[in-house]
Amino acid sequence: MSSDLPTGPERPATDLSAQPDTAPLPAFDSLHQMWAGDGNEGGGQDWRRYLSALIRYKWLILLVLGVGAAGGVVASRFVPVQYTAQATIWVEAGSSRGDNSGPIRTAGLLQSYSWVELLRSYVVLDHVVREMRLYLSPSSPAAASALRNFTVKERFQPGSYEFVVGRDGNSFELLARGGEVLQRGVLGDSVGADLGFQWVPAPGLVPAGERIAFTVANPRDAARRLSESLSTNMNPQQGNFLRIALFGTDPQKITATVNGVAHRLVEVAADLKRARLDELTKILDEQLRVARESLEEAEIALEAFRVQTITLPSDRGLAVAPGVAATQDPAFSQYFEMKFQQEQIKRDHDAIQRALAAARDSSLAVEALEVIPAVQQSSQLRGALAELTTKRAELRALRHRYTDEHPDVKQLIAQVDSLEMTVIPRFAGVLLSELRARRSELDRLIDSSSEELRQIPPRMIEEARLQRHVATAEALYTNLHQRYNEARLAAESSIPDLSILDEAVVPQWPSSNKRPQIILMAIAGSLGLAILGAILLDRIDPRLRYPEQVTHGLGLPIIGAVPHVHQRKPLPGSDEAASVVEAFRSIRLSLMHAYGTAGPLMVTLSSPGSGDGKSFISSNLALAFAELGRRTLLIDGDIRRGALHRLFGLSRKPGLTDYLRGGMEWEALIQRTEHKALDFVGCGTRLQTGPELLSSAPMGLLLKELRSRYDVILVDSPPLGAGIDPFVLGTLTGNLLMVVRTGSTDREMAGAKLDLLQRLPIRILGAVLNGVSATGLYRYYYRHYAYLPGYQAEDEEPTGVHDLVNV
User: Concatenated DSSP letters for 347-393?
Assistant: First the structure.
């Protein structure tokens, strides 16, 4: 068998141009299972199916994508570009009172978070709204130009209005929203004066017959909208900076608005601080006056108290001299001195009585009396005791020389006894009387001093209370006086707590441009819609495009596939022609194994509809068997439109119908072809009774006769949708090979016809895919039946042993 795909007399002319260049991927039995293992089980190739659908509908996708992109570009024109104007205000923190490193100043007016609330207050925003005329909303840029000198009074009437210039260009009308005429006048007159407007449009500024619509809102409402649109940020942990930002479509307007808000905030803060300092100064002045009067009253009360108690004893210490420690008050010293003297007199009195009592029982103890302080202070008693001591010493000295009977001794004894028994007791009694008298006097003095000392604590407490009043009043006065002076100095040199660090400048580049996002969203949306549409069109496509539609949908094993070629008649020896030849060789091998070894191979070839390439497959498959050396007979069973005779350059008559209606032998039907071992039977004369002839007994007898003479009998039948002919021929041969073209065969019709075949004694050997593309889901079949370039079979003339060896 030649590797070329000949045409004309060598091989039937085959039309390959009708095969589509895209088709889905395969799946027949083991080959399909091997290849399907790359994906998930049961549906792993779905994504390849989606990819094939996207490639098939690529122009539709590109069209939808182009329309979506154009729509996005158009829609983006209606989306305004956002600009951002930002200003930064520095908030100066107030100095603490313990900080003496700088000038005297007051603490901050507000806490950090309160500045934002002040910024959003109406005292700031109302002024900005009126200053920037944010209450005015022109309907167009032309209206904004005409209203550039429009202002309002303190009280005005909000609403929507129209300013209409007359056809003459000199008169005008001011209309309300409902069309009510509010004012008629001549250009140059004040417009809307009764409504609180201050607007005098210049002549010629508004063309004749022009209508200008505008809306005047309540300043409070405009201030509320401005507050909602302002973006503020202040983080004390990152510094005392207040950032103000405003977004809008007019960069000049938002910049002027941000700067107006910043300047107004600084101005209001300065006014509030100055008013606060003035009020604080007034309050401190009044408090200082009251504190001065309280201090004077406390000092007068303390002075009067000290004048009254200056002569009374107290527990205050008295300084003897500068630098000398303070001594106790004399009243206290005198009182305790008398108490000490009282105790001492008592002890001396008791000691003298004990000594005199002891002297009655024995001799007088001079030593006991001498140690008593009162005795030492009594000269008479002290002299008598000294004399007694002297006499006793003389007596002891005489007794060493004389006896008691000696006159001198007796005299001294008499003197000693007199002193002991009479003189000293008499003097001691006098001393006791004196001590008792002194003790009585001391008791009286002590009682008197004690009464005076008991009055000292109340006087001291009262004095301490008065001193505290004075100290408190003095401290309050001093503090208020200091604060008053500080407030006066701070008021004289008041520094605002806010200062503009960075003013807003007109932004040159937009901060938020959603036009690219809208275009991208439109592109993405249109792409998604196009992809979804392609998938939906693929799902509802009635044509056979995917291998699983053959194997699972129709239940047919795939015998083989014929690749798609781009040229109508491939050149002999080309890769496309060689790939077709190799594909038919593979189909031949698969068909032989599917048919089995029971007798000669007899198969009817059909397809669900016309244009599936049934005749192309039949003729080339017959050539493949003939080139294998098998005696092959190709019968054109399409008695309605058979045209196989043209491919082989043979005649249609006499043919099959001519034999079936009688009058000729079967040998006359056989036509020899240019290809060895390949014979052909034409369809014959076209008759209306052709289908009945196929079902007649001669047809069965003919096939029986031909079975014994040929190894392969291929019957090319009409499509299954063309009538009963393929079913009759399939029943006669007992085997049917289905030909389907990827992207062309109607799978619903194929399924319906296969259901009918299931009820007939016909064995369906499988399906042959025609027009398989090198891309898409059928590329596995394409690669399976293709061959490596350069390996096509060729004829070569022997040139001798030497040449063969060199080869």
Answer: HHHHHHHHHHHHHHHSS--HHHHHTSHHHHH-HHHHHHHHHHHHHHH
